[in-house]
């Protein structure tokens, strides 16, 4: 087995979605370099050496099998991947991401394009302060002083401010902070598929809506006016019982919960299908039940064009769905949009998946995950 070396890196950003940029960097370092074994708090500090927006800064500890030169090549690739464009001229500037190699074990390296330890780390409190979170007693191999002593002696006048933000070692850890992620969407939008993929990839308890055996559903598509009320009432009773059972039973071996529905969909569908008097009665029952159920920490709505919805419905081949009309899907879509607009307190995210194939295309799936991650790290 190849022996591993310990790296300490500084990461910073003052352009774009700065916290998201740092989080992307942590995940990329884990993917390209090796195991993340330490992540500092996040600090805010004024731009150092030039006028520009404040930076968010942090430090990361990594165990790697790569050489120092390989690490530098990986860092440059990650910076480019995350959108940094390095300029040829000297000087400091704003940047989407900046990754500096501070230490490579206790080695002292002086090569073209590579100097370790970083020659300016002892001059920068925005580096030393987060570094002291994860390596307070790590000794500088040249100055023979640990991080705490270097910080005390540093004459930098730019004082970093600790923030409430947090960086996560893995996406599973980030998603687990949500506790309950609800994936919603119109009929055929792909919510069940996405919920299953997230559950499998990030060790989440999967909560799926069960309604295939509802005896009123095929009858409703044949005669909506006659069967709308019994259908919606049976759905409400089933969803409420299932939702309460599934969301109150915590699984110690899972990181979080992900579902392919939120119980509020009952009211959205009922408003479309029921007459006014029926809906008013239904809403009273719903409001009573809704007070008792668990609310999602993040509500993701998959927006899909109607013609694509109809294609998906046709492909999955459920006989009783084949008579669904475009105007019915349009009404459902408007119902969801009205719900999201009228509930600004809900932590919601709308994702347009009309031109995506997140089932067959890994890049499309990763794009959706990146959008969820960006929303969770938005400041």
Describe the structure.
- With 379 residues, the chain is of the alpha/beta class.
- The protein folds into 2 domains: 5-162, 7,8-Dihydro-6-hydroxymethylpterin-pyrophosphokinase HPPK (Alpha-Beta Plaits); 171-376, 3-Layer(aba) Sandwich (Rossmann fold).
- The protein is 43% helix and 18% strand.
- The strands form 3 sheets. Strands 1, 2, 3, 4, 5 and 8 form a 6-stranded antiparallel sheet that branches. Strands 10-11-9-12-13 form a 5-stranded parallel sheet, sandwiched between helices. A two-stranded antiparallel sheet has the order 6-7.
- Helix 3 runs antiparallel to helix 4, helix 9 packs antiparallel against helix 10 and helix 9 (265-273) packs across helix 12 (326-341).
- The two termini are 42 Å apart.
